[in-house]
Amino acid sequence: MKAQMVDNVSRDMVSVLAPLLQDSKDIRIAVAFVSRRGLAMIERPLHAALQSGASAEFLVGLDMLFTESEALRALYELCRSTANVAMYCYASLRPAAIYHPKLYLSMVDQDVTCIVGSSNLTQGGLQKNVEVNLVLQADLHDEFVSDVYSTYNRLKFHPKRVVPDDEFLNLYAQMCERQKALQRSSARDTSSRKLMERFSEKAQSLRRPSPTGRDLVGWLELVYDSLPEGEFTNSHVYAHERDFQAVYPENLNVRAKVRQQLQVLRDMGFIQHIGTARWRRI
């Protein structure tokens, strides 16, 4: 595994991210905030990768209305014009905790690069702000890579994650405009609350991301491929323990790892928990 730090001082984030995206075949980005200028900074390498057959998806946060509505619209239009691009929004206007990840994943053949740190997909995050980001390169079958993709999937299949549509984006844009007006006038009115209520109602009506085989990477793929049709127990999966150990020889607690992956598969919607140590493949 190779590692390096990027802080926008000695080296800026965009100089690392742009060539990484251009060569990637599988791009996954989970960030709290996106701006139009930040998106423009990766537009050229992103389009180059897509034209070469890459897939890309974006998990975007809307907390505090910091993500620009113009950036959301640009990503949405890209999704509509390009089959292998997806965008999912974290829609919670009054969260108990802020959605705040910054995770960039790129895969080329068997090589995976993970960038995790403080940089949002904004001009400040990619270039102007003082940030701290760790860039890790590892083989696809490294257990660390499996854990990273499991973390990404937890973000993707969170209960508040939705697939946006035109009405949703229009409501968000209206809220952003209203927020700007409120900030200028320091005023609060009932129409703003009604708009937020409409937005929340719309979010609840939207469909969730649908899991596919592309979401299965590393341990998730290994465990899922071992599952029998219909109902099964933990013991059915433990029967493949030696096979799992052969793929990940450094893991000394395979059964605990299996239990963890079953929970992730449940959260993703691949399996259903029907009782103590009992599951059903969906």
In short, what is this structure?
The chain is built from eleven helices and eleven strands.
SSE order, as H and E?
A: EHEHEHEEEHEHEHHHEHHHEE
- What is the radius of gyration? 20 Å
Termini Cα gap: 36 Å
Number of DSSP-assigned strands = 11
Description:
This protein has 282 residues and is an alpha+beta fold. It contains eleven helices and eleven strands. Strands 1-7-6-5-2-3-4-8 form an eight-stranded mixed β-sheet, sandwiched between helices. A three-stranded antiparallel β-sheet has the order 9-11-10. β10 and β11 (278-281) form a beta hairpin. The longest helix is centred in the middle third of the chain and has 20 residues, at 166-185.
How are the elements arranged and paired?
Blueprint: E1 2-6, H1 13-23, E2 26-31, H2 36-51, E3 55-61, H3 69-81, E4 85-90, E5 102-108, E6 111-117, H4 123-128, E7 133-139, H5 143-156, E8 161-162, H6 166-185, H7 190-205, H8 219-226, E9 231-233, H9 234-238, H10 241-247, H11 254-268, E10 271-275, E11 278-281
Parallel strand pairs: 2-3, 3-4
Antiparallel strand pairs: 1-7, 2-5, 4-8, 5-6, 6-7, 9-11, 10-11
Helix pairs in contact: 1-2, 3-6, 5-11, 6-7, 8-11
Task: Give me some keywords for this one.
alpha+beta; eight-stranded mixed β-sheet; 282 residues; three-stranded antiparallel β-sheet
